[in-house]
């Protein structure tokens, strides 16, 4: 899948929004976790977009580093939803894999940009 990182992070955000819409219908802990997941999961793409318009190489690296941190946080919240049996692993395996891949891609972008 050789898809542009901006499009890929946007599509990931759409999937996160849909998951959070489902979680918001629940009460208590799932709703609280959905708010955390929504913030981090949609922030990845927003920071990648900002990086594209970076004012300098350092700004580009900085924005992508924030996107990387948000991708790691999103992966954490997804793992927590599975570990607490709020959502079965089978339902989140694709999102977990995509969060992991985005983390790797963003890390590679940062490393190559620093060279």
Q: How many β-strands, per DSSP?
A: 0
CATH superfamily: 23S rRNA-intervening sequence
| CATH-defined architecture | Up-down Bundle
Estimate the mean pLDDT confidence: 94
Helix amount = over 70%
Instruction: Enter the CATH topology name.
Output: de novo design (two linked rop proteins)
What is the count of structural domains?
Answer: 1
Stretches where pLDDT falls below 50 for ≥5 residues?
Answer: none
CATH class: Mainly Alpha
Tell me the Rg in angstroms. Answer: 14 Å
Topology as H/E string? HHHH
User: Percent of residues in beta strands?
Assistant: under 5%
Count up the helices.
4
Described by the principal axes of the CA atoms, the overall outline is elongated
Structural class, please? mainly alpha
Between the first and last Cα atoms, what is the distance in angstroms? 25 Å
Question: What's the main sheet like?
Answer: none
Description:
The chain is mainly α and 115 residues long. The protein has one domain: 23S rRNA-intervening sequence (de novo design (two linked rop proteins), Up-down Bundle). Helices cover 84% and strands 0% of the residues. It contains 4 helices and no strands. Helix 1 runs antiparallel to helix 2, helix 2 runs antiparallel to helix 3 and helix 3 runs antiparallel to helix 4. The longest helix is centred in the middle third of the chain and has 27 residues. It is elongated and about 45 Å long. The relative contact order is 0.15. The mean pLDDT is 94.
């Amino acid at each position: 899948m050789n898809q542009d990182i901006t499009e890929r992070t946007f599509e990931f955000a759409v999937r996160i929004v849909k998951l959070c819409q489902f979680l918001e219908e629940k009460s208590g802990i799932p709703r609280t976790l959905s708010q955390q997941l929504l913030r981090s999961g949609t922030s990845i793409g927003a920071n990648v977009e900002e990086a594209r318009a970076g004012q300098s190489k350092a700004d580009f690296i900085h924005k992508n580093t924030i996107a990387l941190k948000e991708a790691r946080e999103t992966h954490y919240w997804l793992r927590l939803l599975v570990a607490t049996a709020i959502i079965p692993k089978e339902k989140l395996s694709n999102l977990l894999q995509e969060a992991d891949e985005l983390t790797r891609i963003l890390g590679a972008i940062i490393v190559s940009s620093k060279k």
